[in-house]
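Reading a protein record of the kind used here takes little practice once its layout is understood. The fold follows as a row of integers, each naming the local backbone shape at the matching residue. With these conventions in mind, the following record can be read line by line:

_____
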Amino acid sequence: MSTPTPVPTHAVDDDTAAQAPPRKLSRLEKRAIATKGRLSSPWASGIAILLAILWTIPTIGLLVTSVRPELDIRNSGWWTVIPGIFTGEAEFTADNYNEALYGNSSNLATFFVNSFVITIPAVIIPLTLALLAAYAFAWIPFKGREVLFVAVFSLQVVPLQVALVPLLSDYVDWGINGSFWTVWLSHSIFALPLAIFLLHNFMRDIPPSLVEAARVDGAGHVKIFFRVLFPLLVPAIASFGIFQFLWVWNDLLVGLTFAARPYQPMTVAVAELAGSRGGDWHLLTAGAFISMIVPLVVFIALQRYFVRGMLAGAVKG
């Protein structure tokens, strides 16, 4: 009884593999491979580490100065503390922070709270409006949609300083000048063009088949937005939220122009502390570090969402 001769499977596979043409890489994939190769080189890593060290040194100096006694700050630089740290002779104190936050001359605690009261609504308001506008530009066809989108995007080139006087005049006419509302509205107006652009680009990257499937099932615009698109927009929302939070928290011009003294953010108080009490370095350094610690923590904690959202909304293949 003869047995069938087994056919070598590897030969068939080799022939199939030889006949199958290699997949052509897209332009975006080629660019990503080239960029990854450049960034993973030892020279790029060394330069990145050097830049990180140079960028961090001033922050370390500010932190060390803010916890030194006033007399030591006036007599020597912060780098002189380094030998004393190892020998145990370095002296540190938290009195600078207590005086900066609760002292009669500075009282930064009130302005610290004002910064939160200003920043949180100034992030939520433009983010909410931009989500609705971006959805309309991306998925609702209407006459003049492209022209209107280009007009909104072009508003980014308008300098912020150009709008200060007209806005201030309108706020005075409306009777809301000097309140939190003027700061919230100003930050929202200045943030909307960029927010609409980023969220629109992110929405356009979502496969249209998801939206079409939801429409076939009878979903309207509201259900499509909240059930289909919103869960996919979390990286973009987090990205713009972090960007806007950092911008508003560190802003000086808008708070100084539109807010009265009881409603001003901490950046204004620190700037006045530097101008009127520039000799009190122990208060100035403590106040500056208090002002920067919140955005620093926010960015470090959420930086992965920031990078992911920025790339997803800005890269096109």
Summary: The domain at 108-314 is CATH 1.10.3720.10 (MetI-like fold). Residues 9-18, 313-317 have pLDDT under 50 and may be disordered. The CA atoms of residues 141 and 188 lie 26 Å apart. The chain has 16 helices and no strands.
